[in-house]
Specification:
The complex is a heterodimer of chains A (about 475) and B (about 450). By secondary structure, chain A is mostly helical. Helices cover about 75% and strands about 5% of the residues of chain A. The chains are: A mainly alpha (about 475), B mainly alpha (about 450).
Chain lengths: ~475, ~450
């Protein structure tokens, strides 16, 4: 029941807001997202990690096609549900100042996106999952199209087309998988039960990964991402980088690994090679960037690449690390892009060269930015550290070369983050004034900073939720590989 | 049979109303009789599982459901036409009569059980359309459309007649069930002339559904015809043609599927690719919709390659949803055209800013045509893809999936135009009664059928 409320409250609320006018829209959306945040915490409190799927709701929907409304959470999806529903209020709150045109449309779209993304994380029917997967894309498209900064027609179109091509190939694979049962069934347990020949496994793997590699995005499928992140308004960028790309990472864990474990094991090698090279490549590009937002966009490619590589190792530390890192990347990305939003709000630019010396004028801002930065470069005792450590060690277990290449990305990460901080906050002041954070802005940074510190000190908050689920998943994978 | 009678009488009535110049009465009379026909269509008295009237016509579930869609969509278009013909048309009564006669032809097509009846149906459907296409007499393009449609349409009729004659000559019967029985007995060894006959009949359908390589008429005809007529052609005429095609395959030539399946498979792939690629660069909205309708014909053909248990319902669902999305688009286009006078998609620029509800209508129509969940268009595509996949058409399904991605490009280009917020769209003219009602019905249908597709997908169960 709670899961269904979490799904439909924001979607229906968002649809109603689309039709509404006036400035109440932002308050309504904020209140709804807070309610969802509360529900997700309540689910957390009532969740027993040892029990597998919980808060399950199952209703027949299209029984003749083998499709049902089947939702629920286990330890893995709960982490993502928590991330989505706790970040959304922060993101909504952060956009209040910008007073977007047509507030009903803006906040309605954001709410629909929140509900749809939650839907991706809780769906236990692969057809339902696909519907939410696409549904999340429509509001994102409109947000990029209507609230983008430059070249928004081209960028919105590229973003949508690119992600949709991958999704359509995934759809073909989904239809294929469902028809391996007779009668056709889309239920997760029936899909998990499908036994495929190695060739079919490879094709299904490629079809699924084409959707996820684009969504995440993994090098070399990332070309839509920097433009989209840079052009989109800060709220949209936060939704995209903070939460939406986790849909792809989560989906690899939820669908790819259990369905085609054999093909993943067989093709792990080259996939991880591509990904870790992409990590180093994106970091190298990030170092060169002159625009802060674009820099963070490339940094994001590097970070999520590492997560994807960790997932594909199919080891316990890889999966555990990926979950931790998804959570902390979400939190940090929101922080970083909020920094961009404040800078462009005050100074009208994100060009690093045009900024400088802000630290002395705005100590609160400087501190908040610095904490987020430390989390991003994975300093010990911040949230980024444990996850990144686990991911690198998972790569190391498989091959030291991978961890070396990916590790160079991490080191470069420190380089470009600190360099950007230096350029923006330190050095000579460029033309004068910079107001420090006001209470509303502190209200955005406060939960982020708290989360960075708390998850840095107590990663067990997350690992104790997801640990049993990951163990069970790995068991299932190993059985499936042996059975082949 | 009851709806055919009601609609024919209504057509004649409408002509009389025109003759007596009671312009105002024409539409209400036509709509009321149309509604009566829709209700009568689903009455048990209308149904019969055996062929009636010397084996000419058979109102089984298939015919009833397809006729239902035909009548419903025609009604929607007729209500919309009120906006289009607000002040213009002198011969309103005649125009409505032609609409109804054409609809009768469509119903005969989807209900016929006999090749001769079938021919009669196609002609009753087409001849009013030739006139309607040219009904804007002062518009050169409209005249061109009428002439082109007429010449090509009557040329293709010859194919149908020759095919019918050949089939009759070999099998000795015009009736579908006798042809079916003959083909079943022949067990694969079919005379060449019979093959020729079947092929010629299939070509007629390929032309009527405007599938490649017989699609060249449709962009010009759609562009030239008045907008509501174009909507009628793209929806009702196409649904009727597909219904007839499906019926012919189902009831007559199903036993020789290995003969026609490869042809349809190739044409399906070709049609969707040609339609989508050609649509990419279109700026005229009607022309764009014409190519979109070609592309959609390709998707539906995919379902006809190998018929299964679900084929009828998926095709019916797909055509219904596609028709509704088209009606919705034309509805929005009517307003844009009226306010800006522009025929191309530029005319939609900035629609969102001055008239958000209309922009949302357009967005929903485009999203549905593009096949984005949770709108009905997605389920339609899904049903057809899944069907085809079940019959081993993996390659075709992948081609179709990639084609849907191409489709996004032009559907979204239209939608983007409406959401350009820099420019102001002129304030729209106040709505005519019924216009908003049609748009609302269409929106509810697109959303409702997307969430509860079983309302239609389940009708054959």
């Amino acid at each position: 029941m709670l899961t269904s409320i979490l799904l439909f409250l924001p979607i229906l609320g968002g649809l109603l807001l689309l039709l509404a006018k006036g400035s109440q829209a932002k308050w309504i959306s904020f209140a709804l997202s807070l309610v969802c945040g509360g529900i997700s915490i309540a689910m957390c409190a009532g969740f027993d990690p040892q029990l597998g799927m919980q808060f399950v709701a199952e209703l027949p929907w299209l029984p003749n096609l083998g499709i049902s409304y089947h939702v629920g959470v286990d330890g893995i999806s709960l982490v993502l549900v928590l991330l989505t529903n706790l970040l959304c209020p922060v993101i909504f709150w952060s956009t209040f100042k910008q007073n977007p045109e047509h507030p009903g449309l803006h906040y309605g779209m954001l709410l629909i996106m929140q509900g749809a993304m939650t839907g991706v994380f809780v769906s236990l029917d692969i057809f339902l999952y696909y519907i939410f997967w696409e549904l999340a894309l429509i509001p994102a498209y409109f947000l990029v199209l209507l609230y983008g900064a430059f070249e928004r027609n081209r960028i919105a179109m590229k973003f949508f087309l690119y992600t949709l091509v991958g999704s359509l190939l995934m759809l073909v694979a989904i239809i294929y998988l469902s028809q391996q049962n007779s009668p056709a069934s889309f239920d997760i347990y029936d899909i998990y039960g499908v036994r495929l020949t190695p060739n079919a496994q490879l094709l299904v793997l490629l079809a699924f990964m084409s959707a996820y590699a684009i969504k995440i995005p993994i090098f070399p499928f990332h070309t839509w991402q920097p433009d989209t992140y840079t052009s989109a308004s800060s709220g949209t960028t936060m939704m995209l980088s903070g939460i939406m790309l986790k849909m792809g990472l989560y989906s690899i864990i939820r669908w790819v690994l259990p369905i085609v474990p054999g093909a993943v094991a067989a093709n792990q090698n080259w996939m991880i090679w591509i990904i870790v090279i992409g990590v180093a490549y994106a970091s190298l590009i990030a170092v060169q960037q002159k625009d802060l937002k674009r820099l963070f966009a490339y940094a994001s490619i590097a970070h999520v690449g590492l997560i994807a590589a960790g997932i594909l190792t199919m080891t316990e530390s890889g999966l555990q690390g990926s979950l931790l890192q998804m959570l902390s990347h979400g939190i940090n990305a929101v922080g970083l892009f909020y920094v961009c939003a404040i800078l462009s709000d005050r100074k009208g630019t994100n060009d690093i060269a045009a900024l400088g010396g802000i630290r002395r004028l705005a100590p609160w801002f400087a501190t908040a930015y610095f904490v987020v930065l430390l989390g991003t470069v994975a300093l010990p005792l911040t949230n980024g550290f444990v996850g990144e450590f686990l991911l690198l060690s998972a790569l190391f277990q498989k091959s030291w070369v991978w961890s070396l290449v990916a590790g160079s990305g991490v080191i470069l990460g420190a380089v470009y983050m600190l360099k950007s901080y230096q350029g923006v906050m330190l050095g000579k002041e460029n033309n004068g004034t910079f107001a420090d954070l006001d209470n509303q802005e502190k209200g955005v940074f406060l939960p982020i900073v708290i989360a960075i510190v708390v998850f840095g000190l107590l990663p067990s908050l997350i690992t104790h939720l997801s640990g049993p689920a990951i163990e069970q998943l790995l068991q299932q994978i190993n059985q499936a590989i042996q059975a082949n | 049979m009851i709806p055919i009678i009601i609609l024919s009488v209504a057509g004649v009535l409408s002509m009389f109303i025109g003759a007596f110049k009671w312009k105002k009465a024409a539409l209400p009379v036509v709509l009321l009789t149309g509604l009566a026909a829709l209700v009568a269509n689903f009455l048990p008295e209308n149904r019969s599982e055996v062929p009636q009237y010397s084996g000419m016509i058979q109102f089984d579930g298939f015919a009833v459901n397809f006729s239902g869609v035909l009548i419903l969509v025609t009604l929607l278009i007729l209500v919309l036409s009120r906006r289009y013909y607000k002040d213009a048309a002198e011969h309103l009564g005649d125009i409505y009569a032609l609409f109804l006669f054409s609809l009768v032809g469509g119903i005969i097509m989807v209900a016929s059980n006999n090749l001769v009846m079938f021919f009669v149906g196609i002609e009753i459907l087409s001849i009013p359309l030739y006139i309607l296409a040219a009904s804007e007499r002062n518009n050169l393009l409209s005249n061109e459309a009428g002439l082109k449609y007429f010449l090509l349409g009557s040329f293709i009729t010859v194919f149908l007649l020759l095919g019918t004659v050949l089939v009759y000559g070999i099998t000795g019967s015009f009736e579908f069930d006798k042809i079916y029985a003959f083909l079943e007995q022949s067990g694969g060894s079919i005379p060449v002339l019979l093959r020729m006959g079947i092929l010629l009949i299939i070509i007629t359908f390929i032309f009527k559904i405007s599938a490649a390589p017989f699609h060249f008429w449709s962009p010009d005809v759609y562009q030239g015809s008045p907008a509501v007529i174009m909507a009628f052609m793209a929806t009702v005429a196409k649904t009727a043609a597909f219904g007839g095609f499906l019926r012919f395959i189902n009831y007559a030539i199903a036993p020789v599927s290995e003969m026609y399946a490869p042809i349809i498979a190739v044409l399906a792939g070709l049609t969707m690719t040609v339609g989508n690629l050609m649509a990419l660069n279109q700026t005229n909205l009607k022309r764009l919709l014409a190519f979109s309708s070609i592309a959609n014909a390709g998707y539906v053909l995919l379902a006809l390659v190998q018929l299964g248990d679900n084929s009828n319902s998926s095709v019916l669902y797909y055509l219904l949803v596609y028709s509704i999305a088209n009606v919705l688009t034309i509805g929005v286009y009517l307003t844009a055209k009226e306010t800006t006078g522009l025929d191309n998609i530029e005319g939609l620029r900035g629609l969102y800013k001055s008239n958000p509800p209309l922009a949302f209508c357009l967005a929903l129509a485009m999203l549905s045509l593009a096949g984005i969940p949770p709108l009905a268009g997605f389920v339609g595509k899904y049903a057809i893809f899944a069907d085809a996949m079940q019959h081993g058409q993996l390659v075709l399904v992948i081609i179709a999936a990639l084609n849907s991605a191409i489709g996004i490009f032009y559907y979204f280009r239209v939608m983007m135009m409406a959401f350009q917020t820099q420019e102001e769209f002129p304030k729209a003219i106040p709505h005519v009664v019924g216009y908003s009602a049609v748009l609302i019905v269409c929106i509810l249908a697109l959303l409702g059928l997307g969430i509860m597709p079983n309302l239609v997908l389940g009708v054959f169960k």
